[in-house]
Design a protein that fits this description.
With 126 residues, this protein is an alpha+beta fold. The chain has one domain: Cytidine Deaminase, domain 2 (3-Layer(aba) Sandwich). It is built from 4 helices and 5 strands, in the order H-E-E-H-E-H-E-E-H. It has a 5-stranded mixed sheet. The radius of gyration is 13 Å and the shape is globular.
Amino acid sequence: MTNQELIALAEEAMEYAYSPYSNFKVGAAIETESGKVYTGCNIENASFGATNCAERTAIFKAVSEGETKFKKIAIVGSQNPCYPCGICRQVMSEFTNSFFPIILKDEDDNILSTTLEDLLPHSFNL
């Protein structure tokens, strides 16, 4: 799957975001090693600690269906680029490696690519 196709799926997922508190919508699409794609959106809660980010929604959907090996993830938001939060970065480190590609879109709709190592150097893991 191309980065642009994965971004498009993340944009579709963003439409389902439930963000009445922040009004900041986020969508994510993660491609597994087996070729399947799982999407997610952010889901807010009045108790902000109960909020779930789009990235974790996509990852947890995949893991709940037996997928634990991932190729790359695309993330888009109401404002771009939309980098993953620290918790999402740590969750990604649980299932990927430091070279895991994170695909973003900038404010001019250009495709950006970074790695987990760039965003979370020296991550805590087994």
